[in-house]
TrEMBL record, chain A:
It holds the Pfam family BPD_transp_1. Residues 21-209 form the ABC transmembrane type-1 domain. This is Polar amino acid transport system permease protein. It is a multi-pass membrane protein. Gene3D superfamilies: MetI-like. It comes from Rhizobium binae. PROSITE patterns: ABC_TM1.
TrEMBL record, chain B:
It is a multi-pass membrane protein. It holds the Pfam family BPD_transp_1. InterPro entries: AA_ABC_transptr_permease_3TM (IPR010065), ArtM/GltK/GlnP/TcyL/YhdX-like (IPR043429), MetI-like (IPR000515), MetI-like_sf (IPR035906). This is Polar amino acid transport system permease protein. It is found in: Cell inner membrane; Cell membrane. PROSITE patterns: ABC_TM1 (PS50928). SUPFAM superfamilies: MetI-like. Keywords: Cell membrane, Membrane, Transmembrane, Transmembrane helix, Transport.
From TrEMBL, chains D, E:
This is Polar amino acid transport system ATP-binding protein. The keyword ATP-binding applies. Belongs to the ABC transporter superfamily. Keywords: ATP-binding, Nucleotide-binding, Transport. CDD domains: ABC_HisP_GlnQ. GO terms for molecular function: ATP binding. Residues 12-246 form the ABC transporter domain.
């Protein structure tokens, strides 16, 4: 077939791609922070002795992990306003990413928390530390270190999931791509270019995590 | 514009059929290809290893949505006249093979080294060594992670909607277009996904726990 | 493939919308249906071949044609100068009015009144283009996957207005009777049959077909059936959008 | 005579403790009082309830019946009582339980800063003092994984001392250590005892008991079977079970 | 004299082997020839290169210099040479390395069927013969995890025998076993030796060496230090290192 490639039309829109990329990175970072927060608070609740605190977290994790992100983000964007909570696309996207990533983070971090020995926790109590301090200062850090690799790959996946946010008109790279495509009709060139940009972004994310781990989890273990 | 009646519900179930079929295609295609990827990734040949790690990085480092787009439009550019089915099948196969390949590489490496040496010492060739000795053990080790990925894949088929494929999510979109009740429709769609994925998730984590115990 | 080749093959692959009732949609029994489906079926009959529908997402229509995935587009393609550079249009066979819909309570007379608003449109549609051209510089345009999402966004209050076609009024009423109305008409567009650039045989077949069904009253019947309106009058020419291959 | 809990100088008094794990009766009617400066060695067969007893004193376990009073504070289950008592009581575990992600110094300053609200500079001064005390100040910047078992246990002792407790509880502090390291930890404990620290120590190091204990208490099946000064305890135990137990223990030494 | 590799009945001949792991020189100029039916015991301190040496014979490790010839086949790195040699050489590992997902019988029939192309019926007949030989035929349908260590090692021996090798290599076959099980494996090996199998055996079971070895070879730091008939080796070792080593080993027995 006599198709001639023309990336020129795509590169002419480089500024849009750049802004889109920044949108994607912003959504991803904000989503990760929220996911981490949900993960940590969720684990605190998930490991609670009170069933009434535990049960909703378990339900939350099961529902979120077993339904597609697309369905979740639709729900937040279109359903919550009917209950009086109206969030703009960016905030919706961040919350949806945070909830989705958070559900996975809860399960991952829980694994880490359970790997911290009971003796450590008792030592904390014996020193007179309170429950919150014990969780925060004694359990969490070794737990995070233990599960850092799985958390990293989950967060890289979260970065890639931002592409789905285009369906609620959030501003990110895929939206930019679709705009450019509908103007230029250069579908293959647009998506090819954007795929390459995603690859760069996810590689950068992994690099960032490697750096954080080198600075933050640099204590020796046996 | 109408209520959601039997017809609409059946239409959504039609979509479910495609969702399941897509997941199966992705899983079978990705599985077959994934074994090759896993083998190449554990090969003694450095070039092969580097090339496959690039392949894995590419497909794990880009959104499935983009993979669908690029394959969908790219295959047509190659002058191959294909319907959406083939494009989507290719995209899911590539995507799944990267993930399954990486999962299985891990489990191949988790098989004790002595097994490989014993097979070597018996004079077994590569194919027999892998097929008879290493892979059966590796696949058992990988079961929880493999099932976990299957759940991801089933959910991932929802993205086929974006290239116009009428699977579960798309069917939901169409019905919501006709009935103007997106919340109800997506509630039902979400529930259907949950009903398929939840038992699988539990099977996976159950296996994981059992294996953790066996190791202790 | 040429028209002759298709006649020989016996099947015509038509690109059509799959989720845009009443233009083109897959009905609940899984069959392609709608205004465009009826017209395309007639066209296939005219050629003496079977019709096979390929439902396309809005953004995929042109690529599907140019890459040969479909032979011809009866896909609710509003005729624009931009698009005319990529595909060949026939004479118009349907008309479409694009307007701004908002709550009755909101006083809007002119484009300037919506400055600062969030306005929803379906991605890559003619509404998208019309609204972006008219108010894109002063209002925030939110682009959704399809009409359903766009309308839902207005009902959920996620946007204050939407750019819609003549059917939106009816649909908004169905969702929330008496709340919304059409405020400003941005433009009237016409839909043409899309064929590949330079392929004279297809273009001529389409044009003579349209002339024939106009004359026979079949077009009017189908328009009435799906749109509930009489056949609009179509212009003889539109600047920069040729109806025939030169 | 020893259970006169109203004695002026009584630091810890336990009255008729009852502790069940489910249907298992782990502590049966335990009464004990410990005076300021007293050193008590607790011994007995495995499963006799020694760990359970000292963990109760520190509120790491809850009791079902009886009274625990430390420095006049009744352990009534309120958070305040637990807090007060834990501040007065330091504990050293068999498995050290140092925090792996903190340096030796951070391990020692954590509780003073968080619990007492001591400023960092003061907390570090205090930590250095006690690290010096257990002769391990030179390792202050290392992480636990970089230390030997004996060194880790000495850090654990310093960490507990930094809360300046009135009493120290030790639960088999040397039994996870290689023989060469046992001595360095025992020496540290002997030093503490010499300085007048009140101590309750679960241990089977009979040399240590002879050298520092004011009383040796023998437990079996959740009960206190016998208590006596070490010279008497080792020479002329009263009960059959004590004799059997001592026979076994001393055979290994 | 012993390295006369052109001897008619020479089965294995190693000439000036050099093996490095990175910059570490693991085998230094090793020459050795083994005649048909000969039984050789290899001993020496940990890290002296014993495992490395026998793994080289079986092409599980590659050498950097020197020559390995087995049954006239030069190990030149070609796949064909490796295949031929591995068919002639059976190997038994310290950790058994049975395939856990196959029954005992399947473990034994796999290689004959896959490598020699033997039919299932013949392969099973062969397997039963050798399982009988190591007196474990009654366990044929069990999985390895259901067997004791000694039984597993005997299955490993049978599995290797099923390929009807000309020579068997053993790498500390009894050192992962509980004392009671060592004897049953040693007895099996003694039986094999009596039947005339050529064997190279890394072991510190000196009783075994005395009973069956034609030669004992002592290695240290990657070199062959001394080789001799067992009666001579144990009674009057020549080198200081051999003496020291024997002193240590025999002290434990
Ligand atoms: N969490 C628990 N649940 C049930 N039973 C327990 C629990 N902790 C301890 N026990 C039981 O209580 C009894 C006393 O245990 P404890 O640890 O106090 O014994 P010990 O004297 O310290 O023994 P050792 O010398 O082995 O440390 C034991 O029989 C033990 O099995
Ligand atoms: N894969 C390897 N990489 C680097 N060095 C190795 C490797 N395998 C073995 N070595 C080194 O080669 C030396 C010889 O090892 P080898 O296993 O042959 O010793 P050995 O005599 O069998 O000792 P042991 O009695 O402990 O089994 C050792 O110093 C070992 O550390
Ligand atoms: Mg204890
Ligand atoms: Mg060895």
């Amino acid at each position: 077939m006599g198709y001639t490639f023309d990336f020129g039309a795509v590169f002419d829109r480089a500024p849009e791609l750049l802004w889109g990329s920044l949108g994607t990175i912003g959504l991803a970072l904000a989503g990760m922070l929220l996911a981490l927060l949900i993960g940590i608070l969720g684990v605190a609740a998930r490991t609670s002795k009170i069933p009434l605190v535990r049960a909703p977290v378990i339900g939350f994790v099961e529902v979120v992990r077993n339904t597609p992100f697309l369905v979740q983000i639709f729900f937040i964007y279109f359903a919550l306003p009917l209950m009086g909570i109206r969030l703009n696309p960016t905030v919706t996207a961040i919350i949806a990413l945070g909830i989705n990533g958070g559900a996975y983070a809860i399960e991952i971090i829980r694994g880490g928390v359970e790997s911290v020995s009971k003796g450590q926790i008792e030592a904390g109590f014996a020193l007179g530390l309170h429950k919150g301090d014990v969780f925060r200062l004694i359990v969490l850090e070794p737990a995070l270190r233990a599960i850092y690799p799985s958390l990293t790959s989950q967060f890289v996946m979260l970065t890639l999931t931002t592409s789905v946010c285009t369906s609620i008109a959030a501003y990110e790279l895929t939206s930019a791509a679709q705009r450019i495509e509908s103007d230029t009709f250069r579908s293959f060139e647009v998506y090819f270019t954007v795929t390459a940009i995603y690859l760069v972004i996810s590689t950068l994310m992994m690099g960032m995590f490697a750096l954080i781990s080198r600075h933050h989890f640099n204590y020796p273990t046996r | 514009m109408g209520p959601i009646g039997e017809n609409e519900f059946l239409f959504i179930l039609q979509g479910l059929k495609w969702t399941v079929l897509l997941a199966i295609i992705g899983f079978v295609g990705g599985g077959l290809f994934g074994i090759l990827i896993a083998l190449a990734r554990t090969s003694r040949n450095r070039t092969v290893r580097v090339a496959t790690s690039g392949y894995i990085a590419l497909f794990q480092g880009t959104p499935l949505l983009m993979q669908l787009f690029v394959v969908y439009y790219g295959v047509a550019l190659l002058g191959i006249d294909v319907n959406a089915w083939i494009a989507v099948a290719i995209a899911f196969t590539l995507h799944a093979s990267a993930f399954l390949g990486e999962i299985w590489r891990g489990s191949i490496e988790a098989v004790p080294k002595g097994q490989n040496e014993a097979a070597n010492a018996l004079g077994l060739h590569y194919v027999s060594r892998m097929k008879d000795v290493i892979l059966p053990q590796a696949l058992k080790i990988s079961m929880p992670a493999t099932i976990g990925f299957l759940v991801q894949l089933i959910k991932g088929t929802s993205l086929a909607a974006i290239v116009g494929f009428i699977e579960l999510t798309r069917a939901g979109q169409i019905i919501s277009n006709q009935t103007y009740r997106p919340l109800l429709v997506f509630g039902i769609v979400g529930l259907i996904y949950f009903i398929i994925c939840w038992p699988l998730s539990h099977l996976g984590s159950g296996l994981e726990k059992r294996m953790a115990k066996a190791v202790r | 493939a040429t028209v002759e080749e298709i006649k020989a093959k016996g099947t015509l692959v038509v690109g059509i919308q799959g989720d845009n009732a009443p233009w083109g949609f897959v009905n609940t029994s899984g069959k392609q249906d709608g205004f465009d489906a009826d017209i395309a079926t007639l066209f296939a009959k005219e050629l003496g071949v079977k019709v096979e529908f390929q439902p396309l997402a809005v953004a995929n229509r042109i690529p599907a044609l140019t890459t040969g995935k479909v032979d011809i587009l009866f896909a609710t393609m509003a005729m624009t100068e931009e698009r005319a550079k990529s595909i060949q249009y026939s004479k118009p066979y349907a008309a479409n009015t694009i307007s701004l819909y908002a709550a009755k309570a909101d006083a809007v007379k002119a484009p300037a009144d919506v400055a600062g608003w969030e306005i929803g449109v379906p991605k890559s549609s003619s509404q998208d283009k019309a609204v972006t051209d008219a108010v894109g510089s002063t209002a925030t345009i939110r682009r959704f996957d399809d009409d359903a999402a766009t309308i839902q966004a207005l009902i959920s209050g996620q946007v204050r207005a939407v750019g819609g076609n003549q059917f939106y009024g009816q649909r908004l009423d169905a969702a929330s009777a008496g709340t919304y109305e059409s405020k400003i008409d941005f433009l009237k567009t016409y839909n043409g049959v899309g064929t590949r650039l330079g392929e004279k045989d297809w273009n001529e077949a389409a044009n003579s077909f349209i002339d024939k069904i106009k004359a026979s009253g079949e077009l009017a019947t189908i328009t009435k059936k799906w749109m509930g309106i009489d056949l609009p009058t179509f212009p003889e020419s539109i600047p920069n959008i040729p109806f025939t291959v030169k | 005579m020893l259970n006169s809990s109203n004695d002026q100088s009584t630091l810890i008094s336990l009255e008729k403790l009852q502790k069940w794990y489910g249907s298992f009766h782990a502590l049966k009617n335990i009464s004990l009082s410990v005076r300021k400066g007293e050193k008590i060695v607790l011994c007995g067969p495995s499963g006799s309830g020694k760990s359970t007893l000292i963990r109760c004193i520190n509120a790491l376990e809850t009791i079902q019946d009886g009274k625990i009073v430390v420095e006049g504070q009744l352990l009534d289950g309120s958070t305040k009582a637990v807090d007060t008592i834990r501040r007065e009581v330091g504990m050293v575990f068999q498995s050290f339980n140092l925090f792996p992600h903190m340096t030796v110094l951070q391990n020692c300053t954590l509780a003073p800063m968080r619990v007492r609200g001591t400023g960092r500079a003061d907390a570090e001064r205090l930590a250095r003092k006690y690290l010096e005390r257990v002769r391990i100040l030179d390792q202050a910047e290392k992480y636990p994984a970089q230390l030997s078992g004996g060194q880790q246990q000495r850090v654990a002792i310093a960490r507990a001392l930094c809360m300046e407790p009135k009493v120290m509880l030790f639960d088999e502090p040397t039994s996870a250590l290689d023989p060469e390291m046992v001595k360095e930890v025992l020496d540290t404990m002997i030093g503490l005892a010499r300085d007048g620290m009140t101590m309750i120590c679960v241990t089977h190091e009979m040399g240590f008991a002879r050298q520092v204990a004011d009383r040796v208490i023998f437990m079996a099946s959740g009960e206190i079977i016998e208590e006596a000064k070490p010279e008497i305890f080792f020479k002329s135990p009263q009960h059959e079970r004590t004799k059997a137990f001592l026979g076994e223990i001393l055979a290994h030494h």
